[in-house]
Design goal:
The protein has three helices and five strands, in the order αβββαββα. It has 193 residues and is α+β, with helices and mostly antiparallel strands. The longest helix has 38 residues. InterPro entries: Phage_phiNM3_A0EWY4 (IPR011088).
Length: 193
């Protein structure tokens, strides 16, 4: 029974960590090489795509999606989708897809060292080539170079608050069970006197 308990808690914490890793914003330093629009037919991977854009018909089977092609500092390609999150999950309230696409197009650069324009692409989600899923770009801003370090203050503060909340719940839970066990023990031993 102990193994079942450890497996349950292991699966629970892996799911929590995966959820946070997918949902929290991440920052990539990259060089944008192209932006384009593509008609996407949604299939089994539709849970990784945003809902239909705000103001459009609900739940189409396909739609046009903006994409941003980039190369990260390790010269590996990364493709980002550029979709509105609207009022849905995750709560980024992103309604500026067209503006972001224009900004990304304006920041495109080639490989040559003198003209390379490095940017910080803030995104959430994962890239998986097998499942054809792409992280969703939230913002793009120019940076001084490929060595810039972005400190994720939002993630640090949110994770600290979540850890404090989890610790507070756990401490109160342990205190509740400790009092309950003491009360049961006291009731049991009262008849001895």
């Amino acid at each position: 029974m102990v193994y079942v308990k450890w497996v349950f808690w292991g699966v629970f914490w892996v799911a929590v960590i995966a959820f946070l890793h997918y949902t929290l914003p991440q920052h990539d330093i990259a060089r944008i090489t192209d932006t384009y629009e593509k008609r996407v037919d949604f299939g089994e991977n539709s849970i990784f795509w945003a809902n239909s854009d705000s103001g459009n018909a609900a739940a189409p089977t396909n739609r046009d999606v903006f994409f941003i092609q980039a190369f990260r500092t390790n010269d590996k390609p990364m493709i980002y989708r550029n979709e509105d999150t609207g009022w849905g999950w995750p709560p980024y309230f992103k309604f500026d897809t067209s503006n972001l696409q224009a900004e990304a197009s304006d920041l495109m650069s080639k490989r040559s060292a003198g003209s390379a324009q490095w940017v910080s692409i803030t995104h959430y989600g994962w890239r998986n080539e097998f499942l054809s899923i792409f992280p969703n770009a939230i913002s793009v801003r120019p940076v001084a170079g490929p060595d810039v370090r972005i400190i994720p203050w939002f993630n640090i503060i949110l994770l600290t608050l979540l850890a404090a909340l989890a610790w507070g719940i756990w401490a109160r839970w342990k205190k509740y069970w400790s009092r309950r066990e003491k009360r049961k023990f006291d009731e049991y031993t009262d008849g001895w006197g």
